[in-house]
Give the backbone structure.
Amino acid sequence: MKLKAKYMDKESKLRANIQNDFWYSFQNSPQINSIHPQIEGITLKLNFNYDESLKEEFIKLYKPSDKVFFRIECINKDCIYGGFNLSTEINHLISSKKTKFKGHQTCNGYQDYERYLAKNYHCLCRLNYIIEIKYDEKK
Ligand SMILES: [Zn+2]
C-alpha cells in the first residue's frame, strides 16, 4: 500500500508539472493581433481517433485578441507528454497567405504513466484538423 501511494504521488506531481508548463506557455504567448495584425480570425475544426472510436468534431475559434497558442491537449486522459501543436502549420499558412489547410497529427506522448516509466507504447491518438484563416484584405 505504501508503495502504491508513493507511485501515485509521483504521477500526480508529474501531471501537475506538465499542466503548469502548458499554462505558463499559454500565459506567455502574445496576442494574435500584436504579431499578425492582418488576421481577422482563425478557425480550427478538430476531431480525434482514439481507441478505434471517432470523437465528434469540435471547433475552436480564435479572435485577434486571443493568444498565439495553438497547442491542443490529447483526449486520452492518461496520456503523458502528449498533445498536439498546430503552430508550425498555422505559421506556414500565414507566411504564404493561404486560407485553408487540412491535415493530421499523431500524438507522440506515452499511453499512460506505466508506459511512460517503461518508455514504451506511444499514445498514437490521431488528430484530424482543418485550419481556416480569415485575413483583413486592407492590412
Ligand atoms: Zn496522447
